[in-house]
């Protein structure tokens, strides 16, 4: 899907994350917010991100991309000629409903109206729109230039073609779309994150393992595989007959562990106290910002120089022996 | 903990995985199995691994390390002078009990008796040993030269000093030990893996997402953080007041998602069928071996050239603008 102009409505954390993605793809992007000062801040942040991306070789000409970003004083000015509208107002059903109805009413006839949500049911927020067929939910991860995943959720009335075109556009923006066909609480990625974090809290609360050691269980084994293979691919490569063989061998264990997990248990006060104390021993609060910059650099490095994209190849027998 | 000689008892998949770790640390390692042919195969596999490690700059002199590996025809010959015994016989309570009692009876007075288990309760398998104070469980991940994590589980009678010395030895071997203080079904890493895989199966079975898209939810967001940060560190960096602030903001959502997870549900036939079909479309069974070699190369690459250890640093403002 090739478009020339997009509109971002709402320029808070989520809205401003979208801006550099459109601009680096060569798409003119108009940014509108009920607070004009927020638009200025958002555009400045997007420009800084584009310069970071250029420094890592991920954008050719940041200045040219920055020129494509325009503030829009009025909603009508933002929507004029926009082929894709990315709504990014606060995550409240009433707010979303009101804004989406307004956007759907004012947008160009062929435009797609996309809502940035991380938890709401598309059926609920699109209830009041006149043209549900062009409305869709896209859930980015923050910040999106470091986190390629976008969860795409059609509502009950969304055209299949809008799902296809939105997914194609997300790819043009450099993102990786996945389609969520049925609303579930937390969507998918946050459910998987909750599965891990809830069990982690439960294990610490039960005195099974220390918080620092729990983190090592991820980084020193599971996480280094999950950086480039999902859980199904991991299982598929771990048995002779692929995932069918893996299931024959381990399915019962997985079901039994599943039944024993503490995921639905509340985050105990004691567990939380232990995790907080452990983390503050590792990094004091005033060191967190530096640590965040470290994290973002490593994520950028993984995009600029992906694992497996460095020309490595199997060694020949001769090389092995030399 | 500096030792000169170790014994590996049992040379199947797990036993043979331990051999190169001891040898590359400069420790003489004697390998015994009731099947002498298995010992020969294991030593050849260990030698190949050491040459691979050398090719990636992770072992200086593979040949010197290989010289430290000796087959032992008798159990007594393996145990003589061994300061650390790594039992790696099949994972059955009766087998483990019998072999561990025998090893404990014949080992040097000061030796540590370590059992490779992935699921058994240390209290059960050490029930019959005369000296429970020196007995401990160590759970490696396969293959251990690519997966640094080792779960260390003391039994009810294990000396704290043995926990400390075993953990120190694991570090000398180049591994990353974590201590599991209380037996839980699946230990820790496999519980976290089950939390993810069980929920993944449940989501596919419920028609929420396709298997290929589910894998992308991990590799394109969660997994790339988990390659270098555990779930607690991830949460800690994601809120202004660290994990305390994160909890104040998201705890309720995590508990609610936890209560909604499908982790205890059986792996539905339909879900499994979908996952198998999706994987076979991506890689036919006959392509799996090549894919495994790809996986192992990427894991090796992550060890040889870890993320964040490539001299990257924050860009200066000037560089950002240049």
Automatic annotation (TrEMBL), chains A, B:
<dbReference type="Pfam" id="PF02737">
    <property type="entry name" value="3HCDH_N"/>
</dbReference>
<dbReference type="InterPro" id="IPR036291">
    <property type="entry name" value="NAD(P)-bd_dom_sf"/>
</dbReference>
<dbReference type="InterPro" id="IPR006108">
    <property type="entry name" value="3HC_DH_C"/>
</dbReference>
<dbReference type="InterPro" id="IPR008927">
    <property type="entry name" value="6-PGluconate_DH-like_C_sf"/>
</dbReference>
<keyword id="KW-0560">Oxidoreductase</keyword>
<comment type="similarity">
    <text>Belongs to the 3-hydroxyacyl-CoA dehydrogenase family.</text>
</comment>
<dbReference type="GO" id="GO:0003857">
    <property type="term" value="F:(3S)-3-hydroxyacyl-CoA dehydrogenase (NAD+) activity"/>
</dbReference>
<protein>
    <submittedName>
        <fullName>3-hydroxyacyl-CoA dehydrogenase</fullName>
        <ecNumber>1.1.1.35</ecNumber>
    </submittedName>
</protein>
<dbReference type="InterPro" id="IPR013328">
    <property type="entry name" value="6PGD_dom2"/>
</dbReference>
<dbReference type="InterPro" id="IPR006176">
    <property type="entry name" value="3-OHacyl-CoA_DH_NAD-bd"/>
</dbReference>
<dbReference type="Pfam" id="PF00725">
    <property type="entry name" value="3HCDH"/>
</dbReference>
<feature type="domain" description="3-hydroxyacyl-CoA dehydrogenase C-terminal">
    <location>
        <begin position="186"/>
        <end position="251"/>
    </location>
</feature>
<feature type="domain" description="3-hydroxyacyl-CoA dehydrogenase NAD binding">
    <location>
        <begin position="6"/>
        <end position="181"/>
    </location>
</feature>
